Design the sequence.
């Protein structure tokens, strides 16, 4: 699963969720800046969500606005 979120100048966060009934076994994110920009992140989250059914990516203090955060989740099919 992949999700892409648009950044405001302060925080960008998004989540990639597994299919219903599946559990997350890993994940990650990539961060893309708008052309000519730079980034000075001060807080980064790269972890499973609270229910174990998706992956969360968050970066705070993004410069400039318009950067993106792409989050993916590696999911295990545990349905019978």
Sequence:
């Amino acid at each position: 699963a992949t999700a892409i979120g648009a950044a405001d100048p302060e925080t960008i966060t998004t989540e990639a969720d597994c299919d219903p009934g599946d559990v997350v076994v890993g994940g990650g994110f990539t961060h893309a800046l708008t052309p000519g920009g730079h980034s000075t992140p001060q807080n980064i989250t790269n972890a499973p969500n609270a229910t174990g059914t998706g992956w969360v990516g968050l970066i705070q203090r993004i410069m400039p606005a318009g950067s993106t955060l792409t989050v993916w989740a590696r999911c295990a099919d545990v349905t019978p």
Q: What stands out?
A: The radius of gyration is 14 Å. The mean pLDDT is 81.
